[in-house]
Amino acid sequence: MLDNTQIERLEAEAVNSAKVRQPLYAARKKVFPKRATGSFRQFKWLVMAITLGIYYLTPWLRWDRGPFAPDQAVLLDLANRRFYFFFIEIWPQEFYYVAALLVMAGVGLFLITSTVGRAWCGYTCPQTVWVDLFLVVERAIEGDRNARIKLDAGPWTARKLVLRISKHAIWLVIGAVTGGAWIFYFADAPTLARELFTGTAAPIAYITVAVLTATTYTFGGLMREQVCTYMCPWPRIQAAMLDEHSLTVTYNDWRGEPRSRHAKKVLAAGQPVGDCVDCNACVAVCPMGIDIRDGQQLECITCALCIDACDSVMDKLGREHGLISYATLSDYNANMMLATAGGATSVNPSLIRTADGPFSDKVAHFHIRKIFRPRTYVYMGIWSLIGLGLLYSLLTRDRLEVNVLHDRNPQFVTLSDGSIRNGYTVKLLNMIPEPRTIVVTLQGLEGAEMSVVGIDLPAGRSVPISVEPDRLKMLKVFVRQPAGQIQGTAQTFKFRAEDKASFESDEYTATFNAPEIAR
Amino acid sequence: MSNEHIDEVSGVSTTGHEWDGIRELNNPLPRWWIWTFYFTIVWAIGYTIFYPAWPMLSSATSGLLGYSSRNDVKNELAAAELAKGKYVAAIQSKTVSEIAADDALREFAVAAGGAAFKVNCVQCHGSGAQGSKGFPNLNDDDWLWGGKADQIQQTITHGIRFASDPDTRMSEMPAFGDIITPEQIAQVSAYVASLSGKVQDASLIEPGAKVFAENCVACHGDKAKGNRDLGAPDLTDAIWLYGSGEAAIAAQVRAPKHGVMPAWVGRLGETKVKELAVYVHSLGGGE
Predict the structure, then answer these.
(1) Chain A interface disruption, residue of B105, B141, B142, most A CBs within 10 A
(2) Smallest Cα–Cα separation from A481: which of A414, A424, A419?
């Protein structure tokens, strides 16, 4: 007989033992969103039409700027470094307007998010809009949710092959149109379109279209909710902007629970029953494939389609809308306290209703007033201040500028008659698309005269310069002051540039240097 | 790892690591994410096949595409040369005055000449061509040998007092310390200084004028305006190569200093010299 009591038993376990092993990666669970109908769906169709319309059509709008500038309403002319937006033309050094617009967009996002939650994600984010568009195609070809699930699970028949090929083909066409529209913002749209189809456009145009076709197809058709959940930083950031008065899509479990599929049976048994009949309509329509009844979660883009789905079920049951609704956390908490009688573990539906059915007066409902609170006032204020500042600056900005750079080496030159000469690089900026004659004049610096290299005029105090439309003209200017009139080693004076036709002008204060002892 | 820990709230197992009660959830990655990792590996392998990558004993694998950053530089330089070609050809075939009259050509020549100036001329004339004592300022309107573009070109081409070039600009002022008396030197210096400024002892001016008439007018002219053919400076203006004032003038009369400038055509070639001439002409004093 073997005596195994002598053998010590060791505490050890294989690192990969079956009970601790878990997968390193998870396969994507396919989502087959069902078509929803209702007011939010209507609103989303409208937003989709507007945003897609803006995106695809804007480059084709024309705007007459005269013979010296392009007639495309919105054009980012990178080659010439000019940016056109309807009546506004921006030079690269005025790019702070774009920076200010981005700041406004940021503050606007704070404002929107603090009032109506992740509305950007749910309605206007390109990912959401294009996924919606791709789903329209998918539904049109393969049918609604159940048909798609069946098709997906079924064998590869000829029909399935045809449906799949046509779906992906249309997706690719949408992708190509999307990528194609993008490049029209950077060149004259009709010309570029002609070049694109005749194969004479620049290689970068084709590369851009190809890349954007691929990303649109991949993100909108293949990856969909994966982009929002795993790739996008917004869900993490936007959650931090919400507060207890922000509207979010909420499952109101204070009236929904206890949920039951057999309400009558449960009621007959004397158990409480909530409004939720556990029909899963909210889950079926969700493009993110989540269950809103699990509470607010990162994946929820607040597209509100579950509200539409639930409301139509409530209609059939003859109950009030809003089992799933836009609600604030504070209202939700108040109603939850009411339904649980101040903190019980389970919800009692009778506590929120009067004896004959409707909600009791104590149930909190959202009021538009809640949007107006100090936080939103501050956002609104900052947003409008930046906007007004931008507008003011835009309306009063100079379209004629003069910049002067004093020669540093040598700072001055003594000429044979004892007079002192200083050299300057003068830049005239004609920022309108019309040729102009700009008169450059010396102000101050008594007795001094200037001559401009390349302009055959006798030295004087005023020189007319013709500047091409929408261009900068660089001049080499020599200013000479007679020996007897020099006052000090550094005199300040002004270069004044004036358009005699429009009376627009600009000045630049420059310095005139002279040696210590000028005779 | 032996005891699997499940997070109560999310129902997800944790990695077993704990920091002050905070545990890390062990959520699996999405599978497509793993695919992107595999894709980067495939991409990296492809990259090492197509581009230079693997170090060998004396060089590296050159890659199927034959890419080389040195070739890129070579091509870019060749393209730049090609782009310059039409300007260089025009500069070769035109005179400096014609170049200076053509806006685009002048701009190119000024840029090219400026670059050549920074390498070859700044040692004596200074980085701003402002000169210093004994080295002329090229910005001003006082020219010893002429300030027209072609005269400047001639000076740069053959140099000044540059013995090995037979066409060099040549002039030599005698050392008057051996010819006239120290008293006469003081007188003539006072006279010359008086032409453009004040002198301490006005009584020296008149005898000085006589000394000047006897000894200096041959080169400097009877009005002391100088002579560009001889490189004789104008003595009436405000610009003094070796300093102003009676003492500096007397020193130059007694034992004159003569600067030497090399002939540049042999070293830089005719095109560069033309560009330099246009550049110097553009500095503000060109005639």
Answers:
(1) B141
(2) A419
